[in-house]
Design brief:
- This protein has helices spanning about 5-20, 25, 50-65, 125-130, and strands at about 30-35, 45-50, 65-80, 85-95, 100-110, 115-125.
- With about 130 residues, the chain is an alpha+beta fold.
- The protein has one domain: Nuclear Transport Factor 2, Chain: A (Roll).
- Strand 4 and strand 5 form a beta hairpin.
Length: about 130
């Protein structure tokens, strides 16, 4: 990303590169000591610190619960204090049954020195439990 990009541009580019599975590109805007906080009552939910903890431990373990898992963004909102709010829905298909479901989410990103320094997830954990059981 170019140094003059906005915080929203940085987060948009992260989602695009993650969706495209371009590991080097989606890792670039992530701070080495990123804090990644997901809902505790989700599979593999909790707090992860650092790139390797997030991308080598959390994501592979979490994604292994699903046949398909997509984060579809509806809106990016530039917030005060170098934060970006992302609103959208997860579209997920379970490995355990034929259910597929759409689950709303809110993601909050904290940007520091043009890097994603912190991520916080909010979503409906009951809907995840429904699809996974």
């Amino acid at each position: 990303m170019h140094k003059s990009c906005s915080n929203v541009d940085l987060v948009k580019e992260f989602y695009l590169q993650f969706k495209n599975q371009s590991k080097q590109s989606y890792m670039d805007p992530i701070d080495d000591n990123v804090g990644w906080i997901t809902m505790e009552h989700l599979p593999n939910g909790g707090k992860y610190i650092g790139k390797s903890d997030v991308f080598e431990r959390y994501f592979p373990a979490m994604l292994s619960n699903f046949k398909e898992f997509h984060a579809i963004v509806d809106e990016y909102l530039d917030m005060e204090n170098d934060s970006v709010l992302v609103l959208g829905s997860y579209t997920v298909k379970s490995k355990k049954n034929t259910h597929d479901i759409k689950i709303p989410f809110a993601h909050i990103y904290k940007i520091r020195n043009k890097k994603i320094h912190k991520f916080r997830q909010y979503t409906d954990t009951a809907k995840f439990h429904k699809i996974l059981t």
